[in-house]
Design a protein that fits this description.
The chain has 674 residues and is α+β, with helices and mostly antiparallel strands. Helix content is 67%, strand content 9%. The chain contains 22 helices and nine strands. β8 and β9 form a beta hairpin. The longest helix is centred in the C-terminal third of the chain and has 77 residues. The chain is rod-shaped and about 165 Å long. The two termini are 85 Å apart.
């Protein structure tokens, strides 16, 4: 049962994870031996070395295990553990007793001899992870050849160091050659081959990494930039050592601390590059580091030059004068930092330089009326060499993201959506494939914000003009239809009645002149004429009411009160005392009447609230019901006509309707009286 319970977990462990775990176990064993030695013979030096061993062994071990567990790094995980294991072995050798033959027998000399030239392994355990980065395998024939060369050169170098004739280097000059010696001529030849071979393999490794960087996609390049940051720590350490030596005359502390930091940082940075390259904006980190390195180098050059010159004149005050001159130079270089940063950015990141140049050129052409700002997307695609980049603009009206034609834009799943803002307001976004550099997109978005704002306002203006034209066309069409209706109603109703009345009166006049009718008949005819006139006047009043309700003659409050009293549904009415323009008063009345009619006829509302108020120079007419919530502004509907009528007043109509909850119709119009 126990074996069956362990089988699934063991099956989950990949080969690389098993190797990484084994390397970590070996590292822990070496640290335990070191701890035992320190406990047996405690010294300040031993405690310090033990602490360094624990740190140097643990950090690479954790990084390697994390990569090995991801199942994405292949053999890269175990390779990242090796620097920690090697550091612990080297520090263990430093903790061994000074007289190994007495304590370890003959194996003490063997260990001492085997460790001659072991420092070359530091180069090996750093070069191999770089060669297998980031996928855990070497993808090119040149890289595989380079792996063999690194290992062979290290073996040759250590063999020569252990078996070359003559005494070993201090403090092991008295140790015997337990492995024998090789001929002196052969040792010389192999030394001439292996020592330059280290430099050649370093150059070849650099070429390999540069090739891999340029042949990969944007994601791979981001990973290799993490590796380059780790590799750049070594020259930074040397620069700091130079500074320490120039200022204090002693650089050993800075050298050891810098090399230790670089040794620890490389496995960590390679692990981040392999697993989480998007963790930080590595481009800005590298560029900022390079800019500070340039400034530091300039200050060191000034210090060195001033120190040399003043040393000939002010023998005892040369360091003081040099420090003062360097401080003055540092103050003068502060304004130049931005310029240096820009130059480094252009050199390190040509894509950003090309995008900036395209944006600046388009801006100048737009100002000179040689181009339109809507060409931004085309220019960016050419500069970034990415045909899928889309520039989205935030609509000021409804807040949606739209393209250059005003069509609503939706970013595909997994794509970058980099927001653009100006003055704290969201104005748009850059949409790009997941292979694009998000850091580059953010920089481009910030640079292009003024052009995006320009395009956004142009789109909004174009849409507003289009909507105004459509509204004007609907108003004209509605006016024409209303005129036709009035003509038809007048022709079929009042006009026919008046014509008929005129004919009857004319006939009566003629009959009365001939004496064919008596007074009673004339009175009857006149009564009928009066009745017809009353009917005609009533019809004319109804027609006039369709143009402007006569109930508004007593004010908006009276008109709305009459509307509420004639509605069979309970209505809560609140009208603020406001003096309004007659046209605005009419529009407000029609908004309330149409919304209440819809709530009663179509929504089966049980209660309606009507509120008319003014604030901030605007008139608010709000109708709320608890009906079925099916209202919408549709082509040819009453609400669409209301929207046009409100728009003609320079206002806007909003309809919010939720099924089962109710409907809110609100008109907001400019109101000078408020």
């Amino acid at each position: 049962m126990l074996r069956q319970a362990r089988t699934p977990y063991a099956a989950k462990m990949s080969g690389s994870l098993r190797v990484a775990v084994a390397a970590v176990v070996m590292t822990a064993a070496v640290e335990l031996v070191s701890t035992a030695l320190v406990i047996t013979a405690p010294t300040d030096r031993g405690v310090l070395l033990l602490g360094v061993a624990v740190v140097l062994g643990t950090v690479p071990a954790l990084a390697g295990l994390r990569v090995a567990r991801s199942h994405r790094g292949g053999i890269l995980g175990p390779l990242l553990v090796l620097p920690g294991l090697l550091a612990d072995l080297i520090l263990l050798s430093a903790l061994l007793p000074s007289d190994p033959p007495d304590s370890l027998g003959g194996s003490g000399d063997a260990i001492t001899v085997a460790l001659q030239g072991a420092w070359v392994l530091v180069y090996v355990v750093i070069a191999l992870p770089l060669l297998y980065f980031p996928s855990g395998r070497v993808a090119t024939g040149f890289g595989r050849w380079l792996v063999r060369l690194v290992l062979a050169d290290a073996v040759v170098f250590m063999t020569v160091a252990a078996t070359a004739p003559g005494p070993f280097l201090p403090p092991n000059e008295g140790t015997p050659h337990v492995f024998g010696t090789m001929p002196g001529t052969l040792a010389t030849v192999l030394t001439v081959i292996s020592l330059p071979g280290l430099l050649l393999t370093l150059i070849a490794l650099t070429i390999h990494l540069v090739r891999q960087y340029h042949s990969g996609d944007d994601a791979d390049r981001r990973r290799f930039r993490w590796a380059s940051l780790g590799a750049g720590l070594l020259p930074a350490t040397l620069l700091a050592t130079w500074l320490s030596y120039a200022v204090t005359g002693n650089a050993i502390v800075v050298l050891v601390a810098g090399l230790t930091t670089a040794y620890l940082a490389l496995p960590v940075l390679l692990a981040i590059g392999a697993l989480r390259p998007e963790l930080l904006d590595i481009d800005h980190v590298i560029a900022g580091t390079a800019a500070h390195a340039v400034l530091t180098a300039a200050l060191l050059a000034v210090y060195t030059a001033v120190n040399l010159v003043t040393g000939q004149v002010f023998v005892h005050r040369a360091p003081t004068v040099a420090v003062a001159a360097t401080a003055l130079c540092a103050l003068l270089l502060v304004p130049a930092r931005g310029w240096i940063q820009q130059r480094i950015d252009r050199w390190l990141y040509p894509a950003r330089k090309a995008a900036y140049a395209a944006i600046d050129e388009l801006y100048r052409d737009t100002v000179r009326a040689r181009a339109r700002p809507e060409q931004l997307q085309t220019r960016l695609r050419e500069a970034l060499r990415e045909e899928s980049v889309i520039v989205g603009y935030r609509s000021p009206v409804h807040g949606d993201l739209v393209d250059g034609a005003g069509v609503t834009l939706t970013a595909p799943d997994g794509w970058h959506l980099v927001p653009m803002s100006l003055g704290g307001e969201s104005i748009g976004a850059l949409v790009a494939p997941p292979t694009s550099s998000e850091g580059l997109l953010r920089d481009v978005a910030a640079r292009a914000s003024p052009l995006v704002e320009m395009v956004r306002l142009r789109i909004d203006l174009r849409l507003a003009i289009l909507q105004a034209d459509e509204s004007r066309a609907r108003m004209l069409r509605a006016g024409y239809e209303e005129r036709v209706r009035l003509e038809r109603d007048l022709h079929d109703g009042a006009q026919q009645r008046l014509v008929s009345l005129g004919v009857v009166l004319r006939l009566t006049q003629r009959q009365a002149a001939r004496g064919d009718v008596d007074v009673v008949e004339v009175a009857g005819i006149l009564d009928q004429a009066v009745a017809e006139l009353g009917t005609t006047v009533s019809e004319l009043r109804q027609l006039a009411h369709g143009i402007r309700p006569s109930c508004l003659d007593d004010g908006l409050l009276a008109a709305l009160s009459g509307l509420v009293s004639s509605t069979p549904v309970p209505i809560s009415l609140h009208v603020a005392p406001i003096e309004l323009d007659p046209d605005l008063e009419t529009t407000a009345y029609y908004v309330a009447a149409e919304a209440i009619t819809n709530a009663v006829k179509h929504a089966d509302a049980q209660h309606i609230a009507l509120d008319v108020s003014a604030a901030g120079g605007e008139l608010y007419v709000r109708v709320t019901d608890d009906g079925s919530g099916s209202a919408a502004v549709r082509e040819g509907s009453g609400l669409a006509g209301l929207s046009d009528r409100v728009g003609a007043q320079g206002g806007r109509l909003a309809v919010s309707s939720r099924r089962g909850v109710g409907t809110v119709v609100e008109a907001v119009m400019p109101c000078a009286s408020s």
